[in-house]
Design goal:
This protein is α+β, with helices and mostly antiparallel strands. The chain has three domains: 110 residues, Trigger factor ribosome-binding domain (Alpha-Beta Plaits); 103 residues, Chitinase A, domain 3 (Roll); 168 residues, Trigger factor, domain 2, CATH 1.10.3120. Helices cover 47% and strands 20% of the residues. Strands 6, 7, 8, 9, 10 and 11 form a six-stranded antiparallel sheet that branches. A four-stranded antiparallel sheet has the order 1-2-4-3. Strand 7 and strand 8 form a beta hairpin. The protein is elongated. The N and C termini lie far apart (72 Å).
């Protein structure tokens, strides 16, 4: 009920004990006069508002009010005193608390000092390393006429014709196949439950050129005719998208159903108009600009990643357990959402929960460490984030996840994750600063 604040002319003793590198025990003792004053002030407030049988509001005797509301008065006084003095203790000790305190009441009675202890996690203490002039290497690759031609051919492919032909499969054709795959003598889904598409497909189209499927698969079908069956052996690359298959061998029983000949449309004005360009010249110029933007983005991302890794290597410090746990949960949430959008069922995700958690935990520590470094750099550089920037970030994420903006915001609020957007924008500002101040060396393209 009491809305004001208590008189601050009381003795408060605060001591801090280090429990772990980022965990402290803050012990607070407030003299008995403050306790009695708080209880009296709240009792008076209750007395003014209490309505008891036989008395008008505010006219009930004090002892009757105390008898009826003793528990409420004590709870409110305790909550107020602990809340106010906890915050004062944290401020006076200049502690950067990053989690909700675990408060233990040790003593609270009229005529006695208030004693309580708060276990808190604090931001790690470390010396900020030099973050300007970090080394990064980028190749000297530029967009060539050949790159533009390949991109235009890909556009032509969107309007290609596919005609079934009665001849053996040749390079450039499309093979329409049924297949079943095994790895190490087991059905592939036994090793990789999410890899159903790699295990079995019916009427699957495989290009004999390009790398849109398993490397080495299509080449072993060349020369086959419709109705032929072949055993195809492949080596899954070390960086294959399905982690469980990386570096292993696969065996596929393949039946060729059809051979389709691919015919590209001519590169002319008509094709340009199909892609909304006024002319072939403008289509070509637009493709070149897109490729240059992609290359610029790729180089920027590489510089930032190298700068971050160089910065992380410059400083070592302990991380708060709660921060790592929270970040791990966030990464798990994102991984589950991505897998759901890919069409995986709850059952499959549940089967993969240990793998998902392991992947999340591996990246969480590094992300938390960099987040603390980002905060220190932002403070030193006096970087600010405007509300408009946070809104734009929310709109970008909603679009990326193909969610209505209002629904995305409600989802953030439900997870108490709105502040994450602020941190993401600040993170981006620091990355821009690191990139701008990096020392770049150029290397020939690999």
């Amino acid at each position: 009920m009491l809305r004001g604040s208590f008189n601050s002319f009381f003795t408060v003793n605060v001591s801090v004990e280090n429990l772990a590198p980022c965990k402290k025990l803050v012990r607070v003792e407030l003299d008995a006069t403050a306790v009695d004053s708080a209880l009296d002030a709240i009792t008076k407030d209750y007395q003014k508002q209490a309505v008891l049988p036989g008395f008008r509001q505010g006219k009930a005797p004090r002892d009757m009010v105390v008898k009826k509301y003793a528990a409420e008065i004590k709870d409110e006084a305790k909550r107020k005193l602990i809340g106010d003095n906890y915050r004062k203790a944290i401020d006076e000790q200049k502690l950067k608390v990053i989690s909700q305190p675990d408060i233990e009441e040790i003593q609270f009675e009229r005529g006695q000092p208030l004693i309580f202890a708060a276990t808190v996690e604090t931001a790690p203490e470390f010396e900020l390393p030099e973050y300007k002039g970090l080394p990064a290497s980028v190749d000297t690759k530029t967009v060539t006429d050949e790159d533009v031609t390949r991109a235009l051919d890909m556009l032509r492919g969107h309007h290609a014709k596919y005609d079934t032909v009665a001849r053996p499969l040749a390079s450039g054709d499309i093979a329409v196949v049924n297949y079943n795959g095994t790895c190490e003598g087991k059905v592939i889904t036994e090793l990789a439950p999410t890899a159903k598409g790699l295990t079995e497909q019916k009427s699957f189209w495989v290009e004999t050129t390009g790398t849109n499927f398993i490397p080495g698969f299509a080449e072993q079908l060349l020369g086959a005719a419709a109705g032929d069956k072949r055993t195809v052996t492949v080596d899954f690359p070390a960086d294959f998208v399905t982690r469980e298959l990386q570096g292993k061998k696969g065996v596929y029983e393949v039946e060729l159903l059809e051979v389709k000949e691919k015919t590209l449309p001519p590169l002319d004005e008509e094709l340009a108009k199909k892609f909304g360009a006024e002319s072939l010249e403008k289509l070509t110029a637009g493709v070149r600009t897109d490729l240059e933007n992609e290359l610029k983005f790729s180089k920027s991302k590489s510089i930032r990643n190298q700068a971050v890794q160089a910065l992380l290597a410059k400083v070592q410090f302990e991380l708060p357990e709660s921060a790592v746990a929270n970040e791990t949960r966030n990464v798990v949430y994102d991984l589950v959402r991505q897998n759901t959008q890919r069409g995986l069922t709850r059952e499959v995700i549940e089967e993969q929960k240990e793998t998902i958690y392991h992947a999340a935990a591996n990246s969480a520590k590094e992300r938390v460490k960099f987040a603390f470094i980002v905060g220190r750099i932002a403070d030193q550089e006096k970087l600010q984030v405007a509300q408009e920037e946070v809104i734009r970030r929310a709109q970008q994420l909603a679009q990326m996840y193909q969610m209505p903006f209002d629904q995305f915001v409600k989802d953030l609020q439900k997870r108490n994750a709105v502040n994450e957007l602020y941190e993401q924008v600040l993170h981006e500002k620091v990355l821009e600063l690191l990139e701008k101040n990096a020392v770049i060396t150029e290397a020939a393209p690999v």
